Amino acid sequence: RSCSFTGFSTVQSRKLAKSLSRSSVRSRMSLKSPKAYNSLQKGAVIWDPKPLQVKKIFEALKKGLNEYLEAHQAELDYLSGRHKDTKRSSRLAFYYDLDKQIRSVERYIRKLEFHISKVEELYEAYCIQCRLRDGATNMKRAFSLSPSTKASRESLVELYKNFQECTEDMCFIEGALEVHLGEFHLKMKGLVGFARLCPGDQYEVFVRLGRQKWRLKGKIETDDSQTWDEEEKIFIPNLHEKFEIKVTELRGLATILVGVVTCDSINFFTTKPQAIIVDITELGTIKLQLEVLW
């Protein structure tokens, strides 16, 4: 897009140049397409950053990435040991195959190390903006309690501007951090209800994470097995949203709500598949079982 600056005064041009040259966090970071973050587009209301939630996700993410790194490092050590033994025994074909595997694992380890360093860099920048924002808030509070003068009013305007800039930068960093959260692969394992589940019963399960939705229908067969029209779904993790699960029973044209529960995703950032068993009813007479692989 081209922009015309016809009619701008010298002072306005200087202000614009100063604004464009500002060392913003957003200008130094690769973010998702603006379409993925509608709330960050021009003219939209910036959401309120949530530092405590971001800290919890960051710690869980870093722990999970380090688990993957340790697992692949152990695999590399094992392959390297076999590589030396194979070289001595001169089994050339097997030796070259092992060599390819080692190079592949080494490349993946380098990617993981870069991934971890990028996440740490983003969170460090986030903490800096958070401290600057807190400082601006404290200064605003102090100025508001002092006698009102022209200088204090000008300072309050500048502090409010700094506060807004820090808030925007924190929100954009949150968006950049979400790019590095990976994927959750959810598998439907079925309902558990003992006497509550009878042959012929039909249920609908609705799983939502932010704007992402998964709706699937299942039926209890005569041999007590369950059939579902869809068994797996990929969700993109979100910093602020929790999984919301709703189960309804289908009876002809009528639907009966069985229960609604929410589930935090913070424990899913791990190398091993996580089994989720949640109580759909208050008494736990019907449970939903899912499996999550990160």
From TrEMBL:
InterPro entries: FAM65_N, RIPOR3. It comes from the Eukaryota. Residues 1-294 form the FAM65 N-terminal domain. Pfam families: PL48. Belongs to the RIPOR family. This is RIPR3 protein. It comes from Aramus guarauna (Limpkin). The gene is Ripor3.
